[in-house]
Specification:
The protein is an alpha/beta fold. It contains 25 helices and 32 strands. The two termini are about 50 Å apart.
């Protein structure tokens, strides 16, 4: 299928061949008929992509801060490579469309194949021939509503949420400031709500459109009689509501609202404007200022948008989905008519041309434009990348290992793929992602032969020897078992499993097939870790190990913090360091005792804990994992003591080995976390056979140890490991 994408490094916008997304549980696959280009939002994105790097930095100081923080933690070159990789990846555009349901995921019972639906969501309801949409971002289109009108539903829900925030009542006078796409739909919705509507804009063409859309009065902002006219029309009292739908860096909309509102009037900020005002004016009138957050309640809530968990109607009357449904109802009864905005319709094949017009003549399509799609495009969940085939074959040479990757996120493309490409004998055959786009983007940049959205395409490929799994944590065990039973060797990013049941499944599948399973415990492969282990190898007594991780906070709305999808960080990330402790001392843990800072582990959202591990050889290790430290401070530090020796790894930049008053420093050639050595060891183990670079029983034992830490935190008691 085709999808509109943009490269933020070059600014190029094009139609890209992409595998059709898979239909997952909790949503539907939709064939697009019309998608709406929201000119304000999308023009801003297109313009940002065409900025110089300096302009980008000035526009997003928050991103610059993140880059600086990363450079301090992992080094300049690694940070540079991550930023370059992210900028080179293809970014989707669009967030509002209408189409037909062609597949229905499990657990979805309100939609059927053939239903006409309106869809919402940035990165979801994209400009693409097919999209996968979670159930709460999808609304049925009533009979008689044109699909071209229904494609406005997302923006209509944004306008409607602003009206709801205004808390209008029958007969209120509403001043709409900014008569773009959102503002003009707002005019129509306010009229449907029984309001008297006054529109204000700088553009005379929009003034005329506002009148066509039902505004009682529409005035240019520079009209010298504007204030007098509004006061006269409101009996000298002023407007009840100021509905700000403008997008500007000027504070003039807030100033105008303050001047023209009545005593105790209400300002609703729907557009992107500075919330700055004359304090005395707003104070004297006791004006209320409220923000309208996008489509309505549910927006930015992963449980609502991604998992389909609805809010009870008795507590939240109008969610983003119910706002979409109400907008569609208004379309059906003719109370709102997007056609009055006269959007130009482009064939989807001319999308690049349409965006060119949007950039060069921003006023031409100020009230939106539509893409119209062909409806006979076949579903194809695998696309070949012909230009890469010979390059891959030439690089791989003889004795190669054909490798595929499931997962194409930032860590995969910035860290794992470069490590794989550096491994001698690795042949990059295929890469897969459920949405298709990230896989197609990575395949084109890194030299894979084909991209897919369905991982079974890869498992059914007899030419593939090994699978690298780098998806969300809840899928690791299932994908590992499926890959093993398909006859593939498996490299699975940490963790192997989130539960003991999942781990049992992996152990059974590995025992059945005898194939190599290697988790992504990369730190044991670092030359710094090897040097530290070897420094204490010839000893006659136990040692002490302190492993401190200043992990930094991850926001609670991240998938990483979802207990079902990401697991708990002590399990999903702590396994790295439990494995490292075992590697350094060469002995498995036999007992753990852990405590949480504050003692509260409700919901497993507290990431601050300390675990004491007793190893079989008598070694004692302390594992400290904190998320509440200074994120700019060094992230990781490992200290080892014993046999009149001391060894330290400082944030993987160097190791210092001290004995008899003398200190030896070990520095890696590049980043010291071991990813390249780890991937090379995996490929070599498949090519040459022999001992596994990370014994499977150790990987299992490490995983069980993280489960034991979690159990100790819950019970407050030590846990014995068999």
């Amino acid at each position: 299928m085709k999808q509109v994408v943009q490269n933020y490094n070059s600014g190029e916008l094009k139609l890209q061949d992409v595998p059709t997304p898979i239909c997952k549980s909790g949503g539907v696959l939709v064939r697009t008929h019309y998608s709406l280009v929201s000119t304000g939002t999308e023009r801003m994105k297109v313009s940002q992509a065409r900025m110089s790097k300096l302009q980008m930095a000035k526009a997003r100081p928050d991103k610059v801060k993140q880059v600086i923080q990363s450079a301090k933690q992992v080094g300049i070159m690694e940070t540079y490579n991550k930023v370059r990789e992210r900028l080179d990846s293809l970014t989707p555009l669009g967030y509002s469309l209408a189409g037909t349901v062609v597949e229905v995921g499990s657990s979805v019972d309100e939609f059927s194949v053939g239903d006409l639906v309106a869809c919402a969501g940035e990165g979801i309801a994209c400009h693409a021939e097919y999209v996968f949409v979670p159930r709460n971002l999808c609304a049925k289109i009533p009979e008689g509503v044109e699909l071209s009108d229904a494609a406005f539903s997302t923006v209509g829900a944004i306008s409607m949420n602003g009206v709801r925030q205004a808390e209008v009542t029958l007969g209120d006078t509403a001043l709409v400031i900014g008569l773009g796409l959102v503002g003009l739909l707002g005019v129509q919705i306010l009229k449907a709500a029984g309001c008297r509507v006054i529109g204000v804009d700088l553009d005379p063409a929009k003034i005329d459109l506002a009148k066509t859309c039902g505004a009682d009065i529409a005035l240019r902002r520079d009209d010298p009689s504007l204030l007098d006219t509004i006061l006269r029309e409101t009996g000298g009292a002023g407007a009840d509501i100021a509905y700000i739908a403008a997008s500007t860096k000027s504070s003039d909309p807030m100033a105008l609202a303050g001047e023209i509102l009545r005593d105790r009037g209400r300002v609703v900020v729907v557009g992107m404007v500075p919330v700055e005002a004359d304090w005395q004016l707003y104070y004297n009138k006791e004006l209320s200022v409220v923000m309208s957050r996008s489509y309505g309640p549910g927006r930015y809530d992963r449980n609502y948008e991604q998992k389909g968990i609805d809010y009870p109607i008795g507590y939240v009357r109008w969610t983003e989905k119910r706002n979409m449904e109400e907008f569609l109802r208004l379309l059906k009864i003719g109370a709102v008519e997007p056609g009055l905005l006269t959007p130009e319709v482009f064939p989807f094949e001319q999308a690049a041309e349409a965006y060119g017009q949007l950039h060069e003549a921003p006023g031409k399509h100020a009230t939106g434009l539509l893409f119209k799609y062909k409806t006979d495009t076949p579903i194809e969940r695998r696309i070949n990348i012909p230009s890469n085939s010979s390059k891959v074959a030439a690089r791989s040479g003889g004795g190669s290992v054909s490798v595929c990757m499931i997962g194409a996120g930032n860590f995969t493309t910035a860290t794992l793929i470069p490590a794989l490409k550096a491994a001698q004998g690795a042949k990059l055959t295929a890469i897969c992602s459920a949405a298709g786009l990230t896989a197609a983007s990575a395949a084109g940049r890194h030299g894979f032969e084909y991209a897919a959205s369905d991982y079974q395409e890869l498992l059914n490929d007899d030419s593939i020897d090994a699978v690298i799994i780098a998806t969300h944590h809840d899928t690791h065990a299932t994908f590992t078992c499926d890959a093993l039973r398909a006859g593939k060797h498996v490299f699975v990013e940490k963790p192997i499993a989130l539960t003991s049941e999942q781990l049992d499944d992996v152990m059974v599948a590995q025992a059945e097939t005898g194939k190599l399973v290697m988790p992504g415990f990369n730190r044991r492969f670092s030359p710094l870790s090897v040097a530290l282990r070897d420094f204490f190898a010839k000893r006659s007594s136990p040692i002490e190990i302190v492993c401190r991780v200043n992990a930094g906070e991850i926001k609670s709305d991240s998938w990483y913090q979802d207990p079902e999808e990401g697991g708990w960080r002590i399990i999903s990330e702590g396994c790295h360091f439990i494995d490292l402790i075992r590697f350094i001392c060469g002995s498995p843990p036999v007992r753990v005792f852990a405590e949480m800072v504050g003692g509260d582990i409700a919901g497993l959202q507290n990431d601050n804990c300390q675990a004491s591990l007793k190893m079989e050889d008598g070694t004692i290790a302390t594992f400290i994992y904190v998320a509440n430290g200074d994120p700019y401070y060094e992230k990781e530090r490992i200290e080892v003591f014993g046999q009149s020796r001391a060894g330290v790894i400082d944030n993987w930049r160097e190791a210092r080995l001290s004995s008899g008053g003398k200190t030896q420093k070990v520095k890696p050639a590049a980043t010291g976390k071991g990813h390249k050595n780890e991937m090379a060891a995996f490929i070599d183990a498949i090519r040459e056979g022999g001992a596994w670079p990370l014994p499977f029983d150790q990987a299992v034992g490490t995983t069980l140890c993280t489960f034991a830490i979690a159990e100790s935190l819950r019970s407050g008691q030590p846990v014995i490991l068999s």
